[in-house]
Design a protein that fits this description.
By secondary structure, this protein is α+β, with helices and mostly antiparallel strands. The protein has ten helices and eight strands. Helix 2 crosses helix 3.
């Protein structure tokens, strides 16, 4: 990719505006100008102009008392447009709904986004916490069953590079930080066609994922199911969830290739 400073079509002001928007996340739901400047590294005067423009254009709401900014409903409109633009979501959703009704557990369509997994569609169960029910959450790909089963479909050199260089972030005291162990898990996924993880994102959670392969055999997405270890063990997950999850992923794969 051409570096922005060498790309004559690159609009630096627009890029700075996007930096301001990206400052908001699950830990920064409303921000002052000083906080936006600190997070983005931009000058406060520039942030003030950008935030005011984004407010006038409807992208940010502004509290008239505290003068703090937060995302507006325009973000939902953008998400709505995205859902209509991604055919895989439309193809996967009927399968997710069917699996949710059959299994009564949390189902996700997970997609690879850079070196992270992003949950593009989520069907929570009654035990799901709020944070695990919202589409758009991202987590390190190496730490998840979905990321591991996707990487298992990559050529060996690309797989080795990802295992070596992609970031790890401990979400629980039991998150695997040993890259050699992650490599072993991904190799196991390459052999079996599915990946299972324990306690990686949430303690006492078992995650299982099956890849949705594209035309060249590589996967950029996976179907993922998470269950409580208080109610399930790995043997039961393999016996009662894996067949349904595998069949659904295989049914979606030919559609993903068209």
């Amino acid at each position: 990719m051409t570096p922005p400073k060498q790309n004559t079509l690159f609009v630096a002001t627009l890029a700075k505006g996007l930096q301001v928007l990206r400052a908001f996340d699950e830990t920064h739901t409303d921000l002052s100008l000083s906080e936006m400047a600190r997070i983005t590294g931009l000058e406060k005067s520039a942030v003030q102009r950008l935030a005011n423009t984004l407010h006038l254009e409807g992208m940010l709401d502004k509290d008239t008392v505290t003068r703090r900014y937060r995302p507006s409903h325009a973000w939902l409109r953008l998400a709505y447009a995205y859902y209509w633009s991604d055919p895989l979501i439309a193809q996967a959703m009927p399968k997710l709904i069917d699996l949710s009704q059959r299994l009564g557990e949390t189902l996700n369509l997970a997609q690879l986004s850079g070196n992270e997994i992003i949950y593009a569609a989520r069907l929570p169960c009654t035990r799901t916490v709020f944070a695990a029910s919202i589409p758009g959450r991202t987590v390190p790909a190496l730490c998840t069953s979905a990321g591991q089963v996707i990487l298992a479909t990559f050529p060996q050199a690309e797989r080795d590079s990802a295992i070596r260089d992609w970031p790890l972030r401990a979400q629980t005291p039991r998150t695997t930080m040993d890259r050699s162990e992650i490599a072993r898990q991904i190799e196991g996924a390459a052999q079996s066609g599915h990946a299972i993880t324990h306690d990686q994102m949430i303690l006492h959670e078992i995650g299982i994922a099956c890849a949705i392969r594209s035309a060249d055999g590589r996967a950029w997405a996976a179907l993922h199911c998470s269950v409580s270890a208080h109610h399930w063990d790995e043997a039961r997950v393999r016996a009662e969830i894996l067949p349904w999850l595998s069949d659904a992923a295989n049914a979606i794969s030919p559609l993903a290739r068209s």
